[in-house]
Protein 1
Amino acid sequence: MQSRSRQELQELVREQLQVLLEQENFQGAKALLVPVQFADITEAIEGLPEAMQAIAFRLLSKEEAIEVFEYPDPSVQQTLVEDFKRQDVQYIVDRMSPDDRARLFDELPAKVVRRLLQQLSPLERDATALLLGYTPNTAGRIMTPEYLSLKENVTVAQALEQIRSLANLRETIYYMYVIDDASRLTGILSLRDLIVAQPDQTIGSIMTREVVFVNTNTDQEEVARTIQHYDFMAIPVVDTEQRLVGIVTVDDVLDILEQETTEDIHALGGLESGGDNYFQTNLFTVARKRVVWLLILLVTNSATAAVITNQEDILEKVVALTAFIPLLIDTGGNVGAQSSTVVIRGLNTEEVRPKEALGIVKREAIAGILLGTMLGIVVVIWAFFLQGNWLVAIAVGISLFSICILASVSGSALPFLFRSLGLDPALMSAPFITTAVDVLGVLIYLNIARWILSFS
Amino acid sequence: MQSRSRQELQELVREQLQVLLEQENFQGAKALLVPVQFADITEAIEGLPEAMQAIAFRLLSKEEAIEVFEYPDPSVQQTLVEDFKRQDVQYIVDRMSPDDRARLFDELPAKVVRRLLQQLSPLERDATALLLGYTPNTAGRIMTPEYLSLKENVTVAQALEQIRSLANLRETIYYMYVIDDASRLTGILSLRDLIVAQPDQTIGSIMTREVVFVNTNTDQEEVARTIQHYDFMAIPVVDTEQRLVGIVTVDDVLDILEQETTEDIHALGGLESGGDNYFQTNLFTVARKRVVWLLILLVTNSATAAVITNQEDILEKVVALTAFIPLLIDTGGNVGAQSSTVVIRGLNTEEVRPKEALGIVKREAIAGILLGTMLGIVVVIWAFFLQGNWLVAIAVGISLFSICILASVSGSALPFLFRSLGLDPALMSAPFITTAVDVLGVLIYLNIARWILSFS
């Protein structure tokens, strides 16, 4: 009777599970699975429609997931791998809110991650990343499972033999990662170390125990910078329990840094960069992405238009003043761009630390005074030469001097401000610098002109 | 008598050589050395004052240089290495014109280069680079001599033994370079190949003969891109005779790409970047470097001032028009910056080829039409709301539409033009785009306004 009641129980769990999943009550499904024996879970999952198997699997706790995945019947594993590739599964997961997903999906066990990654092509891996639970642009998304791992008690000769047999299956054989029985990363070893060691030494006695590693959720740019900083050829990726789940190699890092730099440069140029290739994107998408930015700048520019409208009386009196408005705001914009470019690039390459902000803004302010003095003198002569009015020329010169300081200070300070607010300095700085320079610049100019011309 | 007359000859050569070098008649010194026996050259060079030894050595032909450098007395080699580090020697070489230097200095033999590089620290290497004859930012300047080279007839077991003994002295042991008796590069081998091969196989039978290499004068950015393209960990550097002289490793490439990118970004921001750190440079140097750029832009902006001065009559009649000048030129500048940023970054990463110019300019022109339409409509409403004058609002809208197209076409076309003229698109594009947008933009605006207002 035992076997019958057990079958009944399995059937009951499977039915309830299917109903809950169909209702998209994932919380309920997860709760249902908690007290059930893992063998029964396996049976229940096997009985589900295919599209639901992978989701039910992902709702399991870490301990249950490995038991189910490693279930004696190898077809279970294969079925699950196939399920991970399924489009409709990804569609369901995609529709969950990100925090729901994080709450429902436990981290997958290291062993399962490695098996899944090995059986999925890089393209499939990317597509199933949501199911794996790694967010985009993190180490978890760019790591490869093709590393060599060893146990500490293996000898150098045995390790070399193992490498010989696996060399063609691994992305890099130049670093070996040493793990304990629970897959936890305990050491690292280069092929160089192995080559120069005696054949009967154990790996544990020659490995390096201070391993630099990153976590699955480390940002890819930080992964790249770490590899760059240490001149590594690869870096190990561990999960929250220190279990080795993959490695990131230096050749991927080159591509990541290039992609990140393109995004930085596009942001500086006022382009929202989605990582996709601009030259292959639909033109309407391109226009739509660019227009948002231009509309923001149009609105900020309207403030300048309002200021000028407000000050029309002085322009009506001395139309000659109008001629220098483009020169003043363009030069201010250029000075601001120079300061902000240096600071933004410095922040992105970590050459500049946020705590150095005050010193750098001071420095840029002095640079602004120097530039303003030189340009101011040149422009006074130039403006007089163009219009023959000394008072207008002097008003232009003093305004340019003030605008240079304003521009270099806002150009260097705003990126720090946006960084401290958690915003991308490259994307945020330009409209604010433009507004500051244009609105305040025109205000400064017209008021200085009003004051100086009052002496005529 | 033979020995006396020989000593006399040596003395004569030494004296003449010294006189010619003191007169800085390097051409003459080189001619003097051509018919002399190498043993006599060695003696003559040894007799020279220290500061002249290295220069006399560099004037020798390739064949003579190796004979002198490999002269039986090891002190000669050591003296020459010391000479290469001397500041006054570098000062003299620095003062020669670059083409004089190229004509006078033969390429150094591969063996000599390697010995010199091995005995000079990276810092010294950089300082003596002029003497070595490699121009800055080329493979010759960034290569390291710390590679492993093998002969074809060596067995795998012998090679492994050799690697074991040298592993700690070489920067990378993961690639081995196979050379013939004349130091010419004939093949490449990875440690992986070696590990999986049978101990008694010869290197020649397992090596790869299709080697990707660069020349000493290959630009460092191209070296970096080649390594990136092939996912290499290192690339061999050969001289004009295919002799292996060094390798460039991937960790150096990461730094080069970062440095080149910083230069590109600084150029886009209107900063002349000398490869030095902006935050450690003297403020006056910073201001001097920036002001050149700003003065160029000031001059181009003066053209806008002249155009406005020329069209003052219409502005006098309708002062309201002035309010929209900043908005029009700023938006034009932004649209131009978006187009040029995409093209410049594309050219720098080689994602865009110069021959694709026409297609991309067309694409950007259409993007300009789309953007101009959207922004034009918005601005008409906005301008009317601001000033309540339909005619002015319509003039602003039509102008903005035209300026968007002008900006996207010049923004995408100018980088291609400058690239085809051999100029840096990142540095050259901004002032020309600004001028085009400002001067033509204001002209378009004021003339459209004149025409439209003529209906009132």
Protein 2
Amino acid sequence: MGVSTTPEPDGSVPVTAARVPQGERTRLMRLRLMEATVESLVEVGWTGTTTTVVSQRAGVSRGAQLHHFPSKQDLVVAAVDYLTERRRLELGVTAADLPEQGRTRAALELIAAQYVSPVFFAALELWVAARTDEALHEAVVRLERRFGRDAHANMIALLDIDERRGRNRQLVQATLDLARGLGLAASLTDDSARRASILDAWAETLDRELET
Amino acid sequence: MGVSTTPEPDGSVPVTAARVPQGERTRLMRLRLMEATVESLVEVGWTGTTTTVVSQRAGVSRGAQLHHFPSKQDLVVAAVDYLTERRRLELGVTAADLPEQGRTRAALELIAAQYVSPVFFAALELWVAARTDEALHEAVVRLERRFGRDAHANMIALLDIDERRGRNRQLVQATLDLARGLGLAASLTDDSARRASILDAWAETLDRELET
């Protein structure tokens, strides 16, 4: 990669951007652009998110940004991918982390938290923009399907649900749709007390209705 | 109002805009602008909705439109109001319209339909835009509260629920949040089969869990 490691006159090795291999620098810059896109979506929404705003926020030159992502479309489709990965990482809690007592309620808390987060609010911006934007639509649908499958599998694993029994499969799906509805409400106002009360009742309902 | 009704030479009375009193003409023009704003939100979303697009779509001169609604903000805040009224009108079905057999499932069909409609998709555009737009935020929060109260009262009436009993109140709230989550999913892809299956299971759950 021809990166110089010539010592300075005082014997130290200069710590400059040039010391990071090109491939790694590109990867980091793309990562900064993705992070900045998500932050921008959270703070100023789809309309306010422009390639100029994102490159400034990421501290990346306009030229470099346009080289990697020539349009807002390219930038945002890449960000959808990145965002889906971030959301999947948030699913990482395992059944072992849940208490024995109040297990269902604790699982619901985790599931709801995935939809009451800046990452969900950024996804919501893309989701709604995708409704009327064909190029974005395809990317968002593909990735939401992937996220939906993972979220479903995650809940099954958290509560050790046998989804071949009774209405279990539908109750899991309903839980995820409920969580999405609660997330949409939370994007507008802080309604955490209302949400907690609904999740209490929902946990009790699931405990009675899920077939083991 | 000094509107001419002079007959034409052939004896007919000319049917022109001038025959409609000024107050009524203004009301109709505002109505056309509101309808056009909602249609524009449904078809091209918040970003694509501009005052120019709306005045063209409504067939209203740019000058007249700007006279009534000087900015996109003014136009959209008025449209939120109009939209809330339209959504409330959709709540007009009464318990008497529901069948005795499968009453809960039929009520859920009506409730879900309120969130899988162009009017909800337009509201969704405003909802998400309001998250990052202060002036719009206040209007949307106020009107969503009103719509939320009405939707709640509507479900209580449809299923003759005593909300002082058990977890009934929370189950009603959960149903509306579930319906919102299903509506959000439907905004992206047609998932009516999945939705029907969830509502089947949910109707059965409500029949078992609601206390009478």
Protein 3
Amino acid sequence: MAKASWQGTNLPRVGGFNRAVVLDAIRQHGEVSRVELARRTGLTAQTMSNIVRALIDDGLVTENGHAPSTGGKRRVLLKVVPDAYSAVGLHLDPERITGVLLDLAGGVRMRSRRRVPDDTSPEAVGAALARTFHQLVRRSGIADGRVLGVGLAVPGPLDAANRRVLGPPNLAGWADVPLADIVEGRAGLPVVMDNDATAAAIGERWTGRADRAGSFVYVYLGSGVGIGVVLGDQVHRGVSNNAGEIGHVHSGGGRECHCGRKGCLEAYCSMRAIVADWRAATREEPNGEPVAATYESLCRSAADGDATATRVLRVAATRLGQALASVVSVLDVDRVVLGGPALRHVAELVRARVAKVVDAQVWAPKVRPVRVETALIGDDAGAVGAASLVLDHAYSPRLTTLLGS
Amino acid sequence: MAKASWQGTNLPRVGGFNRAVVLDAIRQHGEVSRVELARRTGLTAQTMSNIVRALIDDGLVTENGHAPSTGGKRRVLLKVVPDAYSAVGLHLDPERITGVLLDLAGGVRMRSRRRVPDDTSPEAVGAALARTFHQLVRRSGIADGRVLGVGLAVPGPLDAANRRVLGPPNLAGWADVPLADIVEGRAGLPVVMDNDATAAAIGERWTGRADRAGSFVYVYLGSGVGIGVVLGDQVHRGVSNNAGEIGHVHSGGGRECHCGRKGCLEAYCSMRAIVADWRAATREEPNGEPVAATYESLCRSAADGDATATRVLRVAATRLGQALASVVSVLDVDRVVLGGPALRHVAELVRARVAKVVDAQVWAPKVRPVRVETALIGDDAGAVGAASLVLDHAYSPRLTTLLGS
């Protein structure tokens, strides 16, 4: 029998949801009293007291001194126990694997980087990912039972239902790879997987505290371009978990894209495309260096004031801004966050140009000024986001808790 | 004190939410038993029994015979009482005012059309809207207390917080008009206002029964182009209630738009733009006829097999399809619904072309085949949508009921 489009809710579900709401509020607001928590979450003092006691019993929250006196009894402050649990995040980029160990408070405890092996077969790459995981756990000295799981951030598109990577054009030779299962088999812990842009958006919310609440579009600029969509404090994943696949939308031009079609955004805004533009402008031949390395040279030149490098980046940022203006118009969000490794050295240059284009092209600016900001997390956005997937899955309030799924 | 980003919930809120869930399920699924309702909504038999009794006491639901026997006791069927309440919807288009009276079951009881008066001042147009409202209520013979309110669908953008129309480029001379208050003053009933595309999307869900649940993009094709975004059975309105303003996103071309910028989607896909293309192709001079009338002649010609008219419409539909491919890619929805008066005579021609372009340009087609359909509601989509705003506001399950706002 088909389910109704809305499911009702009940007391056990409400209990689980409210517990997640309280933990989320403590995490986001730092040190906070029970009274303040009750006010912030709309829950009664009695409900709050019960939930906090359970969170303390479970070791997730601890009492941490007293608030300054405001006349009456000084209030006990609560905070999350960072060491209670942690998660490992692994980010697979076409050229690099990055791993982090993230604690419950969103702090990065360990970090590890390695090149993607020359043998780029799924098994070899899966083994390299698992090695990064084991190395992080070993070096951290954290007891096995305290690591909740592994988050995996990969370039989209994904077949999320079957935990498979569908052959992103940036990873040659990969088609329909069961990567989550490969890594899970080698790591011995549950693996959750998402595309890198969505993971980075969750990471920004998880580690970024209260100022990353609400609705925003997170633009992940790595080898390619993807966006993570956060609406009303919930990540929007879409019917096939591929929301935010903006890299291959038609951007108005006719340039050939590595995906085989023409005019895609990544034909103009990927690292590869920008490097090609730079080589054309400077009449330099490719020198066999990896794309990311040449791209970084280009960005250093722009940061040092080189006019050609600056112009090439501005042209790409203009096209990115046009695509984002459409996204902002359709979603009606008032915040765009730019993040990812492609911004290194040039974050403000790119931000300023995107902001200018968005401001000029978004309709109804009077009722909807749009802020364009750079991310709180830098180069490691993908890996931190991957680890956040695990913590978010375990601890964030979610409507499916309340309504069933 | 700032609220936490998530609010907790409690029993009274759960009660109100579950009641709306049950009414919505009865409305969407037609005649249905308590047992089936409990299964569909995930609520217990006891909770269901209590909620249904209250809905019957309030006159919103009635018992309506028995289900065929399946061996045991025959189950009593429930259905919504259509006459319990109704709402008036008014749609203001640049050339026409359409009004409908909609009953609680989503049936259109009365319909009224008039031309926008020659005096297009906000007061004169507001008076014409109010006349349409009074005429509908008078002709229907429905008791005043049974009309819940007035819904108003207007071209965006809006300043929703202040209930003002911000001067859509299709309504010359309108800038920052408090239209909802003007109509409310003259109608004597509460007025809710939204842009026409969002209203039409809600109408499609309200009157369309279960096959319009879930997530979809509704494309409203009137004088201009707007979209309504429905995600997980909730209308997505955005931070300023202007989500779906797609008419003035950059579509890749350089043609001047009536909004003063270049390359907007409406510079190619509005009725005015398509009529101009037709005149250019047939070398006909403008004849002083309203744009909508010429547009309708064009569509009749295309329906009769005229090659030029068909080609002009296909070119516009191609550009529309490209814009929608981007929206589908970003949101990851698997359904696009095309509706509105601009489809009259040519719905299948436009649908087929849009479907072809979307299919070719949306990434990850393997995990996300996208259906492109025409709307269940035809010409009156704006007005039916407007009335649905009122019913939806009063009776649909919404998360703000559960979580506070």
